[in-house]
Amino acid sequence: MNYFIPFFYIYTSNLFMKRLILFLFLLILFKTSSAQLYLNENCKQAYEYTMALRFEKAKTYINKEKQIHPDNVYLPYLESYIGFLKSFISEDDRVFEENKEKMDLALEALDKLNDDSPYKNYLKANVNLQWAFARIKFGEYFTSAIEINRAYRLIDKNSKSFPEFYPNKITHAVLTIIIGIVPEKYDWILDLVSLEGSVQQGTAELYKFLDLAKTDSEYAYLKNECLFYLGFIEINVNPDKTKSQDILQQIIPLSDSNMLFNLLSINILTKSGRYVETEIQFKKLANKFDYYPIYFLDYLHADYYLKEMETDSAKKYYAQFLKNFKGKNYIKDAWRKTAWTFLIEGNEQKYKQLMSAVGNSGNADIGIDKDANIEYEKGEIPNVALIKSRLLFDGFKYNMALSELENIDNSKLNFDQLLEKDYRYARIMHKTNNIEGAKKHYKKVVLSSDLTSEYYPANSALNLGEIYELQDSLSMALLYYNKCTKMDFDQFENGIKTMAKEGIRRVNKARKD
């Protein structure tokens, strides 16, 4: 008996442990396999409100779905999406810190989906891509590169495993476009992760999916997202702006209930010179109380009034932007343009006073802020007529812009100002279809590329490339696109060289075809 008790104890203990281990294994297995994805009406409504930036409305449907399917992994995905959009739009460090853990929660939930679900890697790729965008805003470039690489690998794998799963196409297209417009100085990232892509290829994929989303109800909920990407690309990258007008016709009716489309509409309309319709879109903002605020719209509204030479209204909206926006981008330019309003009114002292704020606030990461910072560092009062010509040109008032140039006394201009005057003549001639005159002035400016650090020669070369491309003079187009990529300048370098690089891709493809 003395020997039996220990034996019985050991035996029963082992049996107990085996059963406990088996029970825990089954519990873990059950818990893992119990994760489900229900892309039902609640989720689609939540997704639609998320894309419209009506986050409280979206949360109503998320909470409603949690009561029915608490294990639905699409819910943490939506919550992560909302957190990303808040961080990306606000550029607020506090908002970013509060929300970035939602990425990990979403990925953890999605990992519990079975591998035979096409949504698993598709949604994981989206989460990585979204937060990679956000990290760029907050200077986390290396982590962003890792997440873009991870997103690319996930969507590539998913496309091969589930070739008939069409939502893959959107994410793959966006990644292809991003890779195609990476600034030259970040090419090392692409080399590091062995990624390739082009705007042309990605855009074609998006149009193909858009056609599908318009005819197949299963994918209709993704149509708005696809439209937004296409609108952004057509107005910012494609030299032929006709397709942006087609996109505009589709999003204007949707902009009444979608803040992102309101923003995109204003962007396309202002860059198309349709100022009466732009003002209508701005007026719609007054009724959007339950939307997440985009303070950048105040900056755009101020720009709109400045181009109209309505300086008091411009001051008002720049002040609203500077008061409410917690990010670092466009701050320097908002102070600089506020200073311009006083300079246009003849108040040089106030211009000097406000320009001091340019050096003490915001970042100089984007082209327009670099431009403002360079003006601050020069410490000179710029030529008012050149500023007015620049603004009037941007506002599509070409005759008024030309009149400002013609009234300038050249003897009062330094070398860079004389170069700018030639550049602005070229821009006006280009936009008024005096193409031969534009080419003549652009070429004159390009010849001065070694004598200045201004962006005028580079943008002149880019415009010459686009003119020759549209004229089907592909060798000349390639010549000027290549000239552009080799120039050294400070302002707008990423944007100008990115468009030149994409132009080279287009021309090389056309020559092969």
**Coarse shape:** globular
Separation of the first and last Cα atoms: 93 Å
Structural class: mainly alpha
The main pleated sheet reads as: none
Order of helices and strands: HHHHHHHHHHHHHHHHHHHHHHHHHHH
What do the pLDDT scores average to? 90
What gyration radius follows from the Cα positions, in whole Å?
A: 27 Å
Q: Estimate what percentage of residues fall within beta strands.
A: under 5%
Instruction: Give the number of DSSP strands.
Output: 0
How many individual helices?
Answer: 27
Helix residue percentage: over 70%
Low-confidence stretches: 1-13, 22-33
Task: Provide a quick synopsis of the model.
By secondary structure, the chain is an all-alpha fold.
Structural notes for this entry:
- By secondary structure, the chain is mainly alpha-helical.
- 73% of the residues lie in helices and 0% in strands.
- The chain contains 27 helices and no strands.
- The protein has helices at 4-33, 41-51, 55-68, 74-90, 93-99, 101-110, 118-137, 141-161, 167-180, 187-193, 199-215, 223-236, 242-251, 259-271, 275-284, 296-307, 311-324, 331-344, 348-360, 367-378, 384-394, 398-406, 415-431, 435-446, 456-470, 474-486, 493-512.
- α4 (74-90) runs parallel beside α7, α8 (141-161) packs antiparallel against α9 and α11 runs antiparallel to α12.
- The radius of gyration is 27 Å and the shape is globular.
- The N and C termini lie far apart (93 Å).
- The relative contact order is 0.05.
